Amino acid sequence: MVRRVIPDDAEELIWHALDGWEIRQFEWTQSTEPARGSILFMTGRADFYEKYLETFGDFYQAGWNVTAPDWRGQGGSGRCGPHPNVGHIEDFSIWIEDLTAFYHHWHDTHPGPHVVIGHSMGGHLVTRTLAEQRIHPDAAILSAPMLAPAGGGMPEWTAHLLSKLICAFGRDKRRAWKVSEKPLEPEVLRQNLLTHDAERYADEFFWFKERPDLRLGPASWRWVERAYSSTRGLRNRKHLEVVDIPILFLATAVDELVDHATIERAVHLLPHAEMKLFGKECAHEVYREIDAVRNEALRASFDFLDKVAPQ
């Protein structure tokens, strides 16, 4: 199964961030024909690049080089806190610096056109890096980007204040939510949030068995607090209006992990943005959905790239 095997002609590398931190990197370069261009794929919170091998294969078969690093603190790029199963970061700016440095290295060593794809938290960080004018790819695709976390019925300002207070009481590195001890039930609930495709969802657990160090659980309270803080910056319309590259949003109106209204607002404010919108047939992980949804998302992606990033 292509989703559960590292391709023979792909490489797994280590890139060193500016402070020396080891970042795990997937690299799949066209070997026989000139590349159509180069894709930099940035995954979501608690993700690792193995989850997207199938999608990498789709872009590779279409002629693109594919590069995908694991974010610092997750996947195969170590951990930033004392608890190996808690996703911790002191500030999202650390990831912005990593992405900026990695992008420029990648841009200078890979042929264009250069396209950045960001999923969920990766979409948040790509958008912020674009808004801060740190990177200037030819185009971007944002898959269910976490421009704001879903509030779960709580006002954003309340959630942010609560997370600040919890961090102030010294629980900043503790997990922000619990994992149910009931067998099976938490995984069924989690799958419903992510994808309707049970086999693709199971790929994650295949890789946990093959490579146990990839597994990561809930985020820390500092991650939550910093996520809300970073979200406030992305609400500044002036920051979005200066992003002058074409952007395709892949989104679902019923996403329970990210706030869809914030995505709609960003599409309206970004000068060259468009959106492929799904409904209840699609959960959060658009590129890992059932075939009917996934094929439509891929078709939209390729049509968009042919239009805005010709070879």
Description:
- The protein is of the alpha/beta class.
- The protein has a single domain, classed as Alpha/Beta hydrolase fold, catalytic domain (Rossmann fold).
- 40% of the residues lie in helices and 15% in strands.
- It has 10 helices and 8 strands.
- It has helices spanning 53-61, 92-109, 121-131, 156-171, 185-194, 198-210, 221-234, 237-241, 260-269, 291-308, and strands at 11-16, 22-28, 37-42, 64-69, 114-119, 139-143, 247-252, 273-278.
- An 8-stranded mixed β-sheet has the order 1-2-4-3-5-6-7-8, sandwiched between helices.
- The chain is globular, with a radius of gyration of 18 Å.
- Mean pLDDT is 94; it is low at 181-185.
Tell me what the CATH architecture is.
3-Layer(aba) Sandwich
Query: What is the class in the CATH system?
Result: Alpha Beta
Counting helices, strands and paired strands, the structural category is alpha/beta
Tell me the span between the first and last alpha carbons. 30 Å
Order of helices and strands: EEEHEHEHEHHHHHEHEH
CATH H-level name... which superfamily? Alpha/Beta hydrolase fold, catalytic domain
Uncertain spans, ≥5 residues at pLDDT below 50? 181-185
What is the general shape?
globular
Q: Could you tell me the number of beta strands?
A: 8
Q: What's the rounded overall pLDDT mean?
A: 94
Question: What's the structural domain tally?
Answer: 1
Task: Please work out how many helical segments DSSP would assign.
Answer: 10
The quaternary organization reads as single chain
User: Over all CA atoms, what is the radius of gyration?
Assistant: 18 Å
| Sheet having the most strands | 8 strands, mixed
What is the CATH topology? Rossmann fold
Strand neighbour order, sheet with most strands: 1-2-4-3-5-6-7-8
